[in-house]
């Protein structure tokens, strides 16, 4: 998932929207793409400032959530004094055939304050995972004998590792530009969680902390340094981020906890046609941590999942969870060939990659998984990059999924993940 930390942004022109639709790369859970004032449908606004708007379809696929559909409407209020715009407003509707919903309203106000150093962004959203996965807590969570197969639609065994999570939330961030590439931010997240289990599911049996759901308010303070060039598809530079967050105890709250998040991204060109891209992330939570928060990462733009399209490709979303987790992604982005589409360059990158992760601080040391202290996966991707701005992501990955076969050492079965998304993973 690409994160836009700079105060410049990107918006599709109408021709780019045609490309997005043709490639079906609009994201299911993708990061915002922030518009610039050169886009479609200019109109007059107050004071003679232009208005820009666009409507685009939203189509994506991943192994966890299946095929998804929706749409997005964006309205930007521009002006010569503002970069990339004075204000932007987004309405998004999105759902998948496997019961994932993400409907949201977003607004973004830039160049605030006397020195024009501040930026205020807010999201109001409804999220629901009606087919989320829970395989236990800790690095030693195994799939039980007899469940490592595909069941018929009416077979109750299909629900063994499934549950539903309904979670409307709000996310408000105030950013401040400091000297040079430095940026500071504060964020407030308010969410309400409802957990629904199926009869005979592992979650209903284990009853981890957080089953009652409730309110959670998280306050975050962070600092980052961004030297990526260019920002959308970097060929050099780094992005370093560190933040702390806390969820205080509240009446009817889902728990009180605190945490630290750190991330490091590094990009290095290799010759004229290659780039090595590395991402390291670590997240630690202490206190009363609901089980569903164990797959959430902190930061300016929080990332969801341990496994799935946004973190550890080639393992199911939420396959492992714990209050501590770490992740490494390495990609070799190789320029394969280039041609023109709609009078703009379309570059195709071939991307072999490897992902590696672990969860910890669970008190669960499974001796049958001593040979697998970390969770590996590897794959091959294809990146169509149009006009140096729009990045499609097609990833195929294989991971090691541990299964209990009754032996002294857990059996590792391959799990294949396929992801059709928008933007680089990082």
Class by SSE composition: mainly beta
Low-confidence runs: 1-48
Quick one: CATH class? Mainly Beta
CATH topology: Porin
pLDDT average, as an integer? 86
Question: Portion of residues in helices?
Answer: under 10%
Indicate the overall shape.
globular
CATH homolog superfamily: membrane protein fhac: a member of the omp85/tpsb transporter family
Strand order of the largest sheet: 2-3-4-5-6-7-8-9-10-11-12-13-14-15-16-17
* Radius of gyration from CA coordinates: 22 Å
Order of helices and strands: HEEEEEEEEHEEEEEEEEE
Question: Secondary structure elements and their pairing?
Answer:
Blueprint: H1 14-23, E1 43-44, E2 50-62, E3 66-77, E4 87-96, E5 100-112, E6 118-133, E7 162-177, E8 182-197, H2 202-206, E9 214-226, E10 236-247, E11 257-270, E12 274-287, E13 324-341, E14 344-360, E15 375-386, E16 390-403, E17 411-422
Give an overview of the whole structure.
The protein is mainly beta and 426 residues long. Helix content is 4%, strand content 53%. The protein has a 16-stranded antiparallel β-barrel. The N and C termini lie close together (5 Å).
